[in-house]
Fold this sequence. Notes:
The chain is mainly β and 284 residues long. It has a single domain (49-283), classed as Porin. Helices cover 9% and strands 62% of the residues. It has 2 helices and 12 strands. The chain has helices spanning 5-14, 28-43; strands at 52-64, 67-81, 85-100, 109-124, 129-140, 145-163, 169-187, 193-212, 217-227, 235-246, 251-262, 272-283. A 12-stranded antiparallel β-barrel has the order 1-2-3-4-5-6-7-8-9-10-11-12. It is globular and about 55 Å long.
Amino acid sequence: MALPLPLLLAALAQAPEPNPPPASVPAASTCVEKEDLKALCEDLPEEEAGPWSGSAALSFMLLAGNSRALTLTTNGLAEYRTDVWVATFKADVIVESAASAEEDDGDEDVVAEALVASVRGERRFTPLLGVYALVYGKTDHLASVELRLDGEVGIAFTLLERDTPDGEEQLLRLDLGLHYSNEARFQYYEDEQDLPDVDLLAPAGRLTFYYPFNDQLKFTQYLEVFPNVLGDSRFVADATTKFSVDITDRLALNTNLLVQLDTAPAAGKAVADVALTLGAEFEF
């Protein structure tokens, strides 16, 4: 027998509401796996850079001064660095056809041979203060330099050395020391002949500044000055300005402007030499 409609509606109103479906809860195993993975990543040791670093470059060079030429130059740098010791090895080689500035017509080609090599060692007593020694050798046929040997000792002040958020290093270092050089001169072109040797004894000032604008664009400035105090008046200075742009982690394009000044050069040679280079550099 069918229930009356009012009784049926009353029964439905008193019936309990169905329970809502439970919210989705991640499985306990998933949470454990995520926590274990996070802990594993935190426990992995960070890879530390070794004490050795370096670079090698091949560049085009535009010369003005004692020569007028477009030639090639190669250079290399290796550095060993710890909290106490810093050793830097540098070499630059130029072997290419060039025109001597002494030739008015510029038609005669000569072989431009130049080699520069230096070693600098520093012993740090504090992050700011250290002592250093430097030896240097150079030959430059266009400048009538048969062989120049230099030695220097002094105090190094590391005014700034810190890492940037991009992982690059900022560096500002000042060297103050005593510099001696002996330069054997020889005139290689036109009338070959021996030239008098020249000695130099001077207080030395050297500035090294490295600043990365970001993780790709980097700026380097290097300056050294030697005012002679032995014999005739003479002032020698070298300045190198460098910009480099990273293409990959290892490969960069760079441009260098090198200015060399010698107020008492060999007879017939220019007081200032200017070199502009464009090239590629590989870091290792």
